[in-house]
Write a structure and sequence with these properties.
The complex is a heterodimer. Chain A is mainly α. In chain A, 69% of the residues lie in helices and 2% in strands. Classes of the chains: A mainly alpha, B alpha/beta. β1 of chain A pairs antiparallel with β4 of chain B.
């Protein structure tokens, strides 16, 4: 590829001139630079995945083990002891369908939230589109997520729950989860560069958020008149979507779904604006 | 096609001083200042009193211009050395050229791919192997995967780590990791290369190899920016020099002329430096540097010293907090970048004693007839003891040159040629004529067997 560039010089073809000056637009993201640096995105994802399981004894098995154990604990506590209703679905299946997208989401938000700070050394020494940092860390846990889906399909098979056509809508709900994580991380990762408080707050917020999402209980438990407020949480839409696509019992509440999507679009766009605004001073304040 | 590949026009960068000193404020600080500024806004707003526009808090109004209205053009294939004292704006200029940070004002036009090498091995991950790190580091530096694969063997061979490519970098010696880092960077194929001080690392043999590689790169017609304190390297590598002083471009011309101007500044400021504005002075929590001077026995600041005279290295500093034992120290470096000495203060009066706040002046005397001829650079540092905390470390803040007038009573005697060595003490020589071995014996022919 590089030799092409040099050939261009030889043939004196026009090349792209790079102009560096103060930029001030709201959404003046250099999409072409983002595309040009796509290999950096791949390598950041690859590094994240490789490093995480280096020097571990059971390696990737952690991906299965974590949701499996959490599911067992939830089933014991919420399903058997507290007798939380689960819309008539067997509790292990009920909780696992929510746990997997939730595990993805919490992983993505945690890792992407620290992505800028953890890479402070690179950020202060080398130019590259900073957007790749949260972007890569939001994508990377999808690999774990895909592996853990094996566990879920295994459990569905065991429980004798047949899959219907609805399963093809699953990618749409996954996309919804990815965008939610991204939108949030655009704020947290950039803010974290300036205020390290964010790093402390994320795990805490995620824990609270888990109980505000229909993971251990169904949406039907939320009183009708509060449903609209509940729908402001896009992860409620994601989880409802997952249960519907895989188990097909209760169709997701259209109000909840529509609200989730609207909130999401708003969060992602404002997140991009915020990230872009903060990005200018990363190297100076980090 | 234009031959100008870099055009810098009115480039300026302003830093907020508070933001630099306190690494990062806590959310609470900013919430508080936000509330204050809201209150101020409701109260009064004094016209154009605050052109910089930021929050109305009184703490954060200290800005300084790291770079101010710098303009120059660079032609294709030129190698440009950027020199200047610490804090003159060199690093800021590099960071702007390499797009790490955005300018406050002005613009840069770059015609061609830019690679910045501000640090060796940036992004290395210690858990990954040498091979994996080459790909990681190369990609971060902007190389394409195919390009790295093509050059992989060359990179590994240059770094001399062939046997260890599949060993995690955490098991490398620091020298090996550094060599690998430089090797990756040295194989970048960008038209514009920006290099910062990286040659100051590694052993002498590898430094020479790096310099050789850089010369090769320059011959290929690529444009290089090179920042270094190593003046011989700048003159050897660069045809052109740019001297920055306090954020402004103060000289631009042929490199050896600019280097000379820097070393023997006509303003006579090379041998003393003062921080009149305490805000700009290098500081830690406990102490702040105020001045560094090179002076003679009779108190004059001087930049040329007769080799037969003692040299006084003086640092003035404020102690801001009581209750600490301090260790000021001084380093001396020569033109080749060799550290001649690194000595802490040894005044018995203060040994083990806690110093009260106030202005102190510590002077170290380099004895007469001790240093070799040449230009010497002085670095100063101050640390608190128990616990050891660096308060400031200013590299090569002042310089002076040692000259020998060849009057016969210095260490060189009547010899006027080139002498080697980093020091040249007036040794006590004794030469005696041994009376037992008489002339006749020496020339009798059997003297060879006697030895």
């Amino acid at each position: 590829m590089q030799s092409n560039v040099q050939a261009d010089v030889g043939l004196s073809l026009p090349r792209k001139k790079l102009i560096i000056e103060k930029r001030s637009g709201l959404l003046d993201i250099d999409w072409s630079a983002l595309w040009e640096y796509r290999e950096l995105g791949y390598i950041l994802i690859w590094r994240d995945v490789t490093v995480r399981y280096k020097q571990t004894a059971i390696g990737v098995a952690w991906v299965i083990l974590q949701p499996l154990i959490t599911m067992l604990i939830f089933t014991a506590i919420f399903g058997m002891l507290a007798k939380v209703p689960s819309d008539g679905i067997w509790y292990p299946v009920f909780s696992l369908t929510a746990l997997l997208p939730w595990t993805y989401f919490s992983q993505a938000v945690t890792r992407a939230g620290e992505s800028v700070v953890i890479n402070a050394k690179i950020v202060s020494k080398i130019y590259f589109p900073r957007l790749w940092l949260p972007l890569a860390m939001v994508v990377s846990p999808l690999i774990d997520f895909a592996l853990s889906m094996v566990l879920l399909f295994g459990l569905l098979l065991y429980a004798g729950i047949p899959l219907s056509w609805k399963v093809v809508t699953l990618p749409a709900f996954i996309l919804l989860a990815v965008l939610t994580a991204l939108g949030l991380s655009l704020f947290t990762s950039a803010m974290n560069a300036k205020y390290r408080d964010v790093g402390h707050a994320i795990p805490f917020v995620i824990q609270i958020w888990m109980y505000l999402s229909p993971i251990v209980y169904p949406v039907s438990l939320v009183p009708e008149q509060w449903r609209w407020l509940y729908g402001l949480n896009p992860m409620a839409g994601v989880i409802e979507g997952f249960r519907w696509a895989l188990l097909g019992r209760t169709a997701p509440d259209p109000v909840v779904m529509a609200e989730s999507v609207i909130v999401l679009v708003f969060v992602v766009i404002s997140g991009l604006v915020y990230f872009r605004k903060m990005e200018r001073q990363f190297a100076d304040i980090i | 096609m234009s031959d100008i590949v870099v055009r810098v026009d009115g480039l300026s960068k302003r830093y907020r001083l508070g933001a630099r000193q306190k690494d990062h404020g806590t959310l609470r600080d900013h919430l508080m200042s936000g509330i204050k500024s809201l209150l101020n806004r409701n109260g009064y707003r004094g016209g154009s009193a605050e052109p910089l526009g930021s929050a109305g808090s009184t703490v954060d109004v200290n800005f300084f211009w790291a770079l101010q209205d710098v303009s120059f053009e660079v032609k294709r294939g030129q190698t440009v050395g950027i020199i200047g004292r610490n804090g003159a704006g060199k690093s800021t200029l590099l960071k702007l050229l390499s797009r790490i940070t955005e300018p406050t004002d002005g613009r840069i036009e770059l015609d061609g791919r830019v690679s910045a090498l501000l640090e060796v091995g940036t992004g290395f991950h210690s858990e990954l192997t040498g091979r994996e790190n080459v790909y990681l580091n190369g990609t971060i530096l902007g190389m394409k995967r195919a390009e790295i694969t093509r050059k992989f063997d060359e990179i590994v061979a240059f770094a001399e780590i062939e046997q260890f490519v599949d060993t995690p970098v955490k098991r490398y010696s620091s020298g090996m990791a550094m060599r690998l880092g430089f090797a990756v960077a040295a194989h970048l194929e960008s038209e514009i290369l920006i290099v910062d001080e990286v040659l100051a690392v590694g052993d002498a043999a590898f430094q020479r190899k790096c310099l050789g590689k850089m010369e090769g790169v320059a011959k290929e017609g690529r444009t290089i920016f090179f920042v270094s304190h190593n003046m011989p390297a700048v003159t050897r590598l660069c045809e052109r020099g740019i001297l920055l002083e306090e954020g402004k471009l103060c000289r631009d011309g042929r490199s050896h002329e600019v280097v000379n101007a820097y070393l023997h500044s006509e303003l006579g400021t090379m041998s003393s430096r003062e921080w009149l504005d305490p805000i700009k002075a290098p500081r830690g929590e406990v102490a702040r540097l105020r001045a560094v001077r090179v002076r003679t026995k009779d108190g004059q600041s001087a930049e040329k010293f007769d080799i037969r005279k003692p040299v006084g290295l003086e640092m003035e500093y404020d102690v801001l907090k009581s209750g600490y034992k301090l260790m000021p120290s001084i380093e001396l470096w020569n033109e080749e970048g060799i550290c001649l000495l690194d000595v802490p203060e040894q005044d018995p009066t203060w040994r083990g004693r806690i110093r009260q706040p106030g202005r102190y002046r510590s002077t170290a005397w380099i004895p007469a007839n001790f240093l070799a001829e040449g230009t010497m650079f002085v670095s100063v540092a101050l640390e608190t003891l128990d616990p050891l905390v660096m308060q400031f470390y200013e590299r090569q803040v002042v310089a002076f040159s040692v000259i020998d007038t060849c009057e016969g009573d210095s260490a060189r005697g009547d010899f006027a040629g080139k002498l080697r060595g980093v020091v040249r003490p007036l040794l006590e020589w004794t030469t005696v004529l041994n009376p037992e071995n008489s002339r006749s014996e020496l020339f009798s022919g059997d003297y060879q067997t006697r030895y």
